[in-house]
């Protein structure tokens, strides 16, 4: 059989080429796939952080006795919620919007925390995709939570 292979020219020249092909395919297919998974993970982490931060900030400010205490509690809750998702706190914006308005109107409203008040808490997180330059930060995730202040609050 070795004589037949040598006669056909199939022999020693093909040794080790499967390993080279495997490494080449692994680099061409594997590395982009890992990068895509890392990018989607970063975006999903930002979405989770924005939603959790908005919910926790809304709960913190809704139970506060006054506006300054509520704002401090909300900022602390946002910091904890985004840190839980490993998002940098410098990339987070906390704002409020009137009830019924989207987060596009956030920042134009200041809650007064009167009994029965309704407003939205909006948290925007800038998502950084790995290995992209910092000036590319157009990817943002926004979480919104509707706060309904209790009508029967001791005050």
Q: Would you give an account of this structure?
A:
Helix content is 46%, strand content 16%. The protein has helices at residues 2-8, 17-62, 67-84; strands spanning 92-98, 118-126, 140-148. It has a 3-stranded antiparallel beta sheet, with helices on one face. The longest helix is centred in the N-terminal third of the chain and has 46 residues, at 17-62. It starts with a helix and ends in a 7-residue tail after the last strand. 25% of the residues are buried.
Task: Describe what is shown at a glance.
The protein is α+β, with helices and mostly antiparallel strands. Helix content is 46%, strand content 16%.
Structural topology:
Layout: H1 2-8, H2 17-62, H3 67-84, E1 92-98, E2 118-126, E3 140-148
Antiparallel strand pairs: 1-2, 2-3
Intertermini distance? 97 Å
Give the helix tally.
3
- Residue-averaged pLDDT: 85
Radius of gyration: 27 Å
| DSSP strand content | 15-25%
Strand line-up across the major sheet: 1-2-3
Order of helices and strands, N to C? HHHEEE
Overall form: rod-shaped
Total beta strand runs: 3
Stretches where pLDDT is under 50 for at least 5 consecutive residues are none
């Amino acid at each position: 059989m070795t004589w037949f292979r040598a006669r056909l020219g199939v022999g020693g020249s093909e040794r080790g080429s499967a390993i080279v092909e495997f490494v080449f395919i692994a680099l061409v297919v594997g590395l982009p796939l890992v990068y895509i998974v890392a990018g989607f993970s970063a975006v999903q982490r930002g979405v989770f952080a924005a939603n959790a931060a908005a919910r926790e900030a809304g709960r913190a400010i809704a139970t506060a006795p006054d506006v300054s205490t509520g704002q401090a509690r909300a900022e602390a809750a946002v910091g904890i919620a985004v840190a839980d998702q490993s998002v940098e706190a410098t990339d987070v914006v906390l704002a409020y919007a009137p009830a019924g308005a989207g987060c596009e109107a956030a920042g134009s409203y200041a809650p007064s925390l009167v009994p029965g008040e309704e407003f939205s808490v909006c948290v925007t997180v800038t998502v950084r995709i790995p290995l992209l330059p910092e000036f590319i930060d157009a990817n943002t995730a926004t979480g919104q939570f509707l706060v309904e202040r209790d009508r029967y609050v001791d005050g």
